[in-house]
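Hi W., the zinc ion complex you wanted:
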Amino acid sequence: MSYRNPRESKSRPFPWPCADCYTLTVVPTVMDYTAKVKHDGVIYELLIPSLEVPRCQTCGETYTTNAVDEQVSDALRSRLHLLTPAQIRKGIEKLGLKQQALAERLGVAPETISRWVNGALIQSRAMDNLLRLFFALPEVREALQGASQDPELGIEVDQKAKDPCPPRLAASAWRRLDVRRVISQRQEFALLRPFDPVGKN
Ligand SMILES: [Zn+2]
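Structure:
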């Protein structure tokens, strides 16, 4: 396991004392680092190659720092295809929103947004989906209005939304239908031929 050194400070010079074997031999070491992290209740094992980690040269104990945490978080976001802090910040900026306003419209605490943006917290899959919908779809932004949101929103299912064939897929779906029609006509023809009384007989 990795220790978090309580006396960690950016200015504190190496070597650090090891909390395990008490030698003064903890120095930055480039190594393939394995971290176990929990997200949405599932534990993921991540391998981060060539990561600089404070490591005891005597007993091999490793130490977690903010820089290590950041690399581990980046690896987890990348593994799970979650929006990065930079992507979230960009989305908020593009919409010209204050973090406070976004928080109100999504229904989360303003501190939560600021922690997503500064990388201190990784959003859940559900919140990642909500952010993506909010950034990508004007209809979603129109619907999620915070305090002035329509209290009836979502109580009834929009019948238009029941169409399982989104417009972008319509053309290819029609082509597939066409192919099926041709195949079934051929099968019909093949089936009919032997019994065709006005055929070769
Ligand atoms: Zn040690």
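The chain has seven helices and four strands.

W.
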